[in-house]
Design a protein that fits this description.
9 strands, Arc Repressor Mutant, subunit A, 3-stranded antiparallel sheet, 2 domains, 11 helices, alpha+beta, 6-stranded mixed sheet
C-alpha cells in the first residue's frame, strides 16, 4: 500500500496473518495480535504478503467527546493521542483491549455500548502511558529490564517475588515498587496477563482443549483458567474462541455513535487507506465519534 496518512488517530489489531510497515523512519513487522498506533497525520506505508490478512481498525474522532475533556481537565482526545508517539506491540495490554473491543462488536448486547465506551477510554489511557514509558526507557535500571525478561521466560511457572529479586540483585520491596511505578501493575498482575495472552493465542487452535491450554499457560486447572480469562476479557475462553474463529456472526451495533462495518474506502477528503486494496485484506473498522 502506498504511503498515506489519516486525519484521525487510529489503532490496528492484526487478527490473522501479518504485514510489514514503514513509519516514522523505522520498519517493522506486525503479526497476529500485533497492535499499531498512529497519531493523526502520521504517514506510513504497508506491505501485505501473499497470505490472507484480517485486521480490526479503530479510529478516534474528537468532536463528540468534549465532555470528557472538560470533566477531566486533560485536554482533548486528539491532543492526548497526538502527544503519543508511534507504538507497535506484539501482544500486551493494547492487544488485550483491542481484542475485547473486537469481541464486543462481534457479539453486541444491551451492555455493549457502555462496554465499548469504557474500553476505548482505557485504550487511550494505556496508549498515553505506554508512550511516556517508552520515552523514559533510557532512565530505567537494567535490573528492571531483567525482571521483565524473567517474567516473559518463566510466566508459566510458579515464580515468587523473592526468586526474582534474588536473580536481579535488589530487595523484594524495591523491585515491587519500581515495577509498579513503571508498568502500572504488580508483578503478579503482569504474570497473569502474560498467561492470558499466551492462552489467547492458543485459543486460535481449535483442536487444543481448554484443559490443555490451561495447563500449558500455567494455571492450576481449567476452572482457574476460565475464571481468570473471564475476569480479564469479559467472556469465557469458549466464547472467545467462537468469536475469533467466526463461528459467532456479527450482530447489529447501533448504540450511541459507534458503528462496525466492512470498509474499503477512505472518508471524504482523506487519502485512501490503501492505494489498491489487495483481495486478501479484510478490515473490520470502528469509528468512535
Amino acid at each position: 500500500m502506498e504511503r498515506h496518512a489519516h486525519k484521525t488517530a487510529r489503532f490496528t489489531l492484526s487478527i490473522d496473518g501479518g504485514y510489514s510497515e514503514s513509519s516514522g523512519g523505522e520498519s517493522f513487522d506486525c503479526g497476529p495480535r500485533g497492535v499499531v498506533f498512529h497519531a493523526a497525520g502520521d504517514a506510513h506505508a504497508i506491505t501485505v504478503g501473499n497470505h490472507a490478512l484480517r485486521s480490526f481498525l479503530l479510529e478516534i474522532e474528537d468532536d463528540v467527546h468534549g465532555q470528557y475533556s472538560r470533566d477531566s481537565g486533560l485536554g482533548s482526545f486528539e491532543t492526548l493521542l497526538c502527544d503519543s508517539r508511534l507504538l507497535h506491540t506484539a501482544g500486551g495490554p493494547l492487544a488485550a483491549i483491542m481484542g475485547a473491543l473486537y469481541c464486543e462488536l462481534r457479539c453486541p448486547d444491551d451492555c455493549s455500548s457502555i462496554a465499548v465506551e469504557g474500553l476505548v477510554l482505557q485504550l487511550i489511557a494505556t496508549t498515553a502511558r505506554l508512550s511516556h514509558q517508552v520515552a523514559d526507557e533510557q532512565g530505567r535500571p537494567p535490573w528492571l529490564d531483567r525482571t521483565a525478561e524473567i517474567l516473559h521466560e518463566r510466566f508459566r511457572s510458579r515464580l515468587t517475588i523473592q526468586e526474582i529479586s534474588d536473580a536481579v540483585g535488589v530487595s523484594p520491596s524495591r523491585l515491587s515498587m519500581a515495577f509498579r511505578r513503571v508498568y502500572h501493575r504488580t508483578i503478579g498482575e503482569e504474570q497473569r496477563r502474560l498467561r492470558i495472552e499466551f492462552a489467547t493465542g492458543r485459543l486460535g487452535q481449535p483442536d487444543t482443549s481448554l484443559a490443555d491450554i490451561a495447563l500449558e499457560a500455567g494455571f492450576s486447572d481449567q476452572a482457574h483458567f476460565c475464571r481468570a480469562f473471564k475476569d480479564a476479557t469479559g467472556m469465557t475462553p469458549a466464547r472467545y474462541r467462537a468469536v475469533i474463529s467466526g463461528c459467532v456472526k456479527a450482530g447489529p451495533f447501533q448504540k450511541g455513535q459507534s458503528n462496525m462495518a466492512q470498509t474499503s474506502a477512505a472518508r471524504p477528503g482523506e487519502a485512501p487507506i490503501s492505494g489498491t486494496r489487495p483481495g486478501n485484506l479484510s478490515i473490520d473498522a470502528l469509528t468512535w465519534q
